[in-house]
Design a protein that fits this description.
Shape: globular
Keywords: FAD, Flavoprotein, Oxidoreductase
Helix content: 40-55%
Structural class: alpha+beta
Distance between the termini: 66 Å
Largest sheet: 4 strands, mixed
Family: Belongs to the acyl-CoA dehydrogenase family.
Number of strands: 10
Protein name: Acyl-CoA dehydrogenase
CATH topology of the largest domain: Butyryl-CoA Dehydrogenase, subunit A, domain 3
Organism: Ruegeria atlantica
CATH superfamily of the largest domain: Butyryl-CoA Dehydrogenase, subunit A, domain 3
CATH class of the largest domain: Mainly Alpha
EC number: 1.3.99.-
Number of domains: 3
Radius of gyration: 22 Å
Order of helices and strands: HHHHHEEEEEEEEHHEEHHHH
């Protein structure tokens, strides 16, 4: 067997293991979260968009989208799928792109195996998408930094082994005064609050983090001091492009289930699919699915070719989050009483979809980004103009 053949077989086996894991859709609880996370690592669920020599050979965003669409279609737990994708893009990717080799060596292999759980700590009680108003500070001290502040609504916060934390190192420098750090859960002064109960995405524990004179060595700063805004913008772009990929896979599942139900369900002597109110919903669900898949494909193309992402990332996040919420509601309406049962995924999908229009920046924020960048284009002088 050649090296290429061996690699092909390895990738095929890994893909089969990932899809088997997705189909099993293990119920996630506080008691078994670690075991589920390690099982995800064991089947290669985190092995995407990696540098050569580390993990699988799936190094393009286009392949990631293809794989995670299928994963999301098969996995009934959107929260688990979102948590996996979040680790890929908000934890692993910034470490790969910006961290020192020492930090990468310390964390990446254990992230891929599921041994470690990371958290992305940006939002604060009084600050969210406005990163320059963050209040968490990092004061240089003894070849390191002393962190003080709070982070709010942190996914995986209550269970994380470490967090990527954004803090002000020189507030007077504006965007150049923000820095990023790897802060470990066993660092003195790192406090994790209890889990906050949410409406949906229950497989993603969420809570507050607090730093009280928490000392972090310089070696765990990501990139140079003052590079935090650059790291943050890149990470938010990646997250906004791809965090909802599995939910688009879930939209495939919704459409298939609703179509089968509409054809088989009889009322007034005919299939309910023959009623225009029902068939219109199916048409809308199909259009949303198609446009979301196209947006993911375009986002992946932009990423893979190194093109700017910020405006399109906001468009993708806005469109996909709103589409998943609308299609989840349409699925509930189409399935009727069956969709309202606990045994159905419909109610869970609706609750999970509500988080999508908030996560990674609300729909209002995404519209602000899109409009601001569009208006910025129109204000630029045209060639040959006055």
């Amino acid at each position: 067997m050649t090296v290429n053949q061996a690699t092909h077989h390895t990738n095929r086996d890994t893909r089969c293991a990932r899809l088997d894991f997705a189909k099993a859709s293990p119920d996630v609880s506080d008691e078994n979260l670690r075991a589920v996370w390690k099982a995800a690592g064991g089947c290669g669920a985190f092995e995407f968009v990696l540098p050569p020599g580390l993990g699988s050979s799936i190094n393009s965003a286009s392949e990631f989208v293809e794989e995670m669409l299928l994963f999301g279609e098969l996995c009934a737990d959107s929260g688990l799928a979102m948590a996996i994708i979040s680790q890929i893009w908000t934890i692993q990717s910034p470490l790969i792109r910006f961290a020192s080799q020492e930090l990468q060596d310390s964390y990446l292999s254990r992230l891929l195996s599921g041994e470690l759980i990371g958290a992305f700590a940006l939002t604060e009680p009084t600050a969210g998408s406005d990163a320059l108003s963050l209040q968490t500070t990092a004061e240089h001290n003894r070849a390191g930094y002393i962190l003080n502040g709070q982070k709010a609504f942190v996914g995986m916060g209550p269970v994380c082994d470490f967090a990527i934390v954004f803090a002000q190192t020189a507030p007077e420098k504006g965007r150049w005064g923000l820095s990023a750090f790897v802060v470990r859960a066993d660092d003195e002064g790192f406090l994790r609050a209890d889990r906050q109960e949410k409406v949906g995405l229950n497989s993603v524990p969420m809570g507050q983090l607090e730093f009280r004179d928490c000392w972090v060595p310089e070696a765990r700063r990501i990139g140079r001091e003052g590079a935090g805004a650059t790291i943050l913008q890149a990470t938010l772009d990646w997250e906004r492009c791809f965090i909802l990929t599995a939910q688009v896979g879930a939209m495939r599942r919704q459409l298939n289930e609703c179509t089968e139900h509409a054809v088989s369900r009889k009322q007034f002597g005919r299939s309910i699919s023959e009623f225009q109110s029902v068939s219109n919903r199916l048409a809308d669900m199909r259009v949303r699915l198609e446009t979301c898949e196209l947006m993911l494909a375009r986002a992946a193309q932009l990423y893979d070719t190194g093109q700017p992402l910020t405006q399109f990332a906001a468009m993708a996040n806005l469109h996909i989050s709103e589409a998943f919420l609308s299609s989840s509601m349409d699925a509930m309406r189409t399935l009727g009483g069956r969709g309202y049962l606990q045994s159905s995924n419909s109610g869970t999908d609706v609750n999970d979809a509500l988080g999508g229009v908030i996560y990674s920046g609300t729909s209002d924020i995404q519209r602000e980004i899109i409009a601001r960048m569009e208006l910025g284009k129109s204000s630029q002088p045209k060639n040959g103009g006055d």
